[in-house]
UniProtKB/TrEMBL annotation, chains A, B:
Family statement: Belongs to the gamma-glutamyl phosphate reductase family.
Cellular location(s): Cytoplasm
Pathway involvement of the protein, from the record: Amino-acid biosynthesis; L-proline biosynthesis; L-glutamate 5-semialdehyde from L-glutamate: step 2/2
Superkingdom in the source lineage: Bacteria
Enzyme class name: oxidoreductase
Gene Ontology, cellular component aspect: cytoplasm
Species in which this protein is naturally found: Agromyces rhizosphaerae
HAMAP family, A to Z: ProA
GO biological process: L-proline biosynthetic process
Record protein name field: Gamma-glutamyl phosphate reductase
Length: 422, 422
């Protein structure tokens, strides 16, 4: 069903162009799509000066507009980062093409043969903010999986994205694929995003990447199916049996190694029986790394630097060097806390007790449930998927890190020789 | 994220009860869930008199309210149909439990073991109209797959559904499972459906089953993820090489065998070179079965009974003994017509030409694409899935007939021994 909502004719024609291109891309063999990706990687390196110049413009505008340091860092491209983008595209070339994969099949008792095969979704929409690398990552994954993309990358990266889209199209054209497979609507500002959210029948799926606010807006407003990504209020529970050094290192790594991402730790829960043994060293390591710690009274009693924690703190994804901490009576109370505050992204337990580990794995409801590892491993690259479309925190279609198969649908091929139903 | 929309507290408590029950069901072994299903089948037979008495009330009210024959037929239960419902529940017992199935897994280079396993979705909402069999079918599939259900079955079947929900709960209780796993909101009328559509975070997925209008309302209004089911504007293309008898039988079976369902044929397209050879017998067989035929001029010229067809006719799912027919120049024009009017449910070609068959399979974008069979085979039962949740016409999560695995999500279990990310 195509939505009957009115839409700007220029935007409609871009969406239609993407749809037409998707029909071509959807039937082209892997070798042709790989050739386009190779050409895109080459073009990224060849056009580095233009990319960096456009990026300078965006950075200058961002500084003038008072963009925060975190956003400025995400916005910034360097020679190294452009090379990394080209490498990421070449990594996608090496990934297996999911299109045409036979998922399952059988011969029915009446002789009909049914086979479910992977097909592209069609047109994938991405709405994100100030991360030009997403422009290239998502387009490369979409092209490999036979999809067209409509991008809305946010005004902060408008100049950079404009140049990157040109590079993507140059690569498509070089391989004889339709350049219309990559569309961008940044020039329409918020209206572009709004049109995408109401382009039911024109866009097959929307992937928002960014702040919780952005995702919530897309989820509430969109009539196009959405894959919810991102927000991670991530917990680590230090069980009674957690070894001291392991607990200290895992909490530190999960919080500090890259605090601005969704799989970074936000709350550490400590078993009351292990609090005296574990908390001093855990807190000292965090405080030494410059982390602001907020905790309940039991945690505050351990170190004077610990500020009081509220329920709001427990519900917050800080994306910064800030952490909440709480002492819980037992595994049950840890599970209750997680159930209440989790965004169902990644949850971890540190334990040496088999029963605790298995209960945690079975009962915690999240995209990734971990035993004795840093939560930073919930990642398409770490999982071996190559570049990542995002980390789905919803339960439908895809859950957890999304790679190429998550950008496909299926269809049933049914072959008979005249069977009728009785 | 849980929606902040206000909700009637009685409805909220039913949704919460379903959520709490889903946590229990989600971790119970197959044997316990099967025991509940067995008890439900027994209870259906034991309570047949009460079920039929309630159904009589609904039928009488339906007649008084001028319900159409098709709806009255779907609403009606008989002793035989109740027995068939019980049999359908026992069929679900025999199906494999998808929960816990390991979908994929590997050991990462750093020694971490990742494994993706199937888990229940949680709370499944179903919105449907005047089909009490759906109440039992969906609840049985949900229970087997570890999900709770919230049902909105429509005022026309309110008395029947009330008794059926009692039977379902009795079966759950007999097996020691929480009766709250089956909730119904029929007593809230349209407000019940509306609350379900805004119960984001409380209901994990909504499945609308019924008219195109019902589905469109749910799709547009719901902030809960929806699996779109149903509407089928189904085509059959008779290629130049289609054998006469096969073409006649397949068109007749696809249209006439059960015209009120979504996989029934709505439009027959005939290759111009084969029109003189095929159309007279195809039309005669349809007309003899009482089918109203609307066609373009070429079809009208064959038999005087053929009425003129408009684009509206080509876009209509009749669900009755009515069909549209059109002569097309070639396979390309057939593909164009299908692309324009298809609801992407089921599309078929009748041909003896290998290249035509393969092109049709590759290029038609639909949940099921068929060669030389009746379109009536797009069906969970026929595909071997047991009872059917519906036929998804969307591309995300599930496409085509949905069985038990389509009522599950996955989660990643991640086991390490202290790995940190560098």
């Amino acid at each position: 069903m195509q939505s009957t909502a009115t839409i700007d004719p220029v935007l409609a024609s871009r969406f239609d162009e993407a749809r037409a291109a998707s029909r071509v891309l959807g039937t082209r063999p892997t070798a042709v799509k790989d050739a386009a990706l190779g050409a895109i990687a080459d073009a990224l390196l060849a056009h580095e000066p233009a990319i960096l110049a456009a990026n300078e413009q965006d950075i200058a505008a961002g500084r003038a507009n008072g963009l925060g340091d975190g956003l400025l860092d995400r916005l910034t491209l360097t020679s190294q980062r452009v090379a990394a983008l080209a490498d990421a595209v070449r990594d996608v070339v090496r990934l297996e093409d999911p299109v045409g994969e036979s998922v399952r099949g059988r011969r029915l008792p009446n002789g009909i043969r049914i086979e479910q095969v992977r097909v592209p979704l069609g047109v994938v929409g991405a709405i994100y903010e100030a991360r030009p690398n997403v422009t290239v990552d998502i387009a490369a994954l979409a092209i490999k999986s036979g999809n067209a993309v409509v991008l809305r990358g946010g005004s902060a990266a408008e100049h950079t994205n404009h140049v990157l889209v040109g590079v993507l199209r140059e690569g498509l054209g070089a391989a004889g694929l339709p350049e219309g497979a990559v569309q961008i609507v940044d020039d329409f500002g918020r209206d572009g995003a709004r049109a995408m959210m109401h382009a039911r029948g024109r866009i097959d799926v929307l992937i928002p990447r960014g702040s919780a606010g952005l995702i919530e807006t897309v989820v509430s407003e969109s009539t196009v199916p959405v894959i919810e990504t991102g927000a991670g209020v991530v917990h680590m529970f230090l069980d009674e049996s957690a070894p001291l050094e392991r607990a200290v290192e895992l909490v530190h790594n999960a919080k500090v190694q890259r605090p601005s991402v969704c799989n970074a730790l936000e709350t550490v829960l400590v078993h009351r029986s292990a609090a005296d043994r574990l908390l001093p060293a855990v807190l000292d390591r965090l405080l030494a790394a410059g982390v602001t710690v907020r905790g309940d009274e039991a945690v505050q009693a351990v170190r004077p630097e610990v500020l009081p924690a509220t329920d709001d703190d427990y519900a917050t994804e800080h994306m910064a060097l800030e952490i909440s901490a709480r002492v819980v009576d037992d595994l049950d109370q840890a599970l209750e806390h997680i159930d209440r505050f989790s965004t169902r992204h990644t949850e971890a337990i540190v334990t040496e007790d088999l029963a605790s580990a298995e209960r945690f794995l079975a009962e915690v409801d999240a995209a990734a449930v971990m035993v004795n590892t840093s939560t930073r491993f919930t990642d398409g690259g770490e999982f071996g998927f190559g570049a990542e479309v995002g980390i789905s925190t919803q339960k439908l279609h895809a859950r957890g890190p999304m790679g190429l198969p998550e950008l496909t649908s299926t269809k049933w091929l049914v072959r008979g020789d005249g069977q009728v139903r009785g």
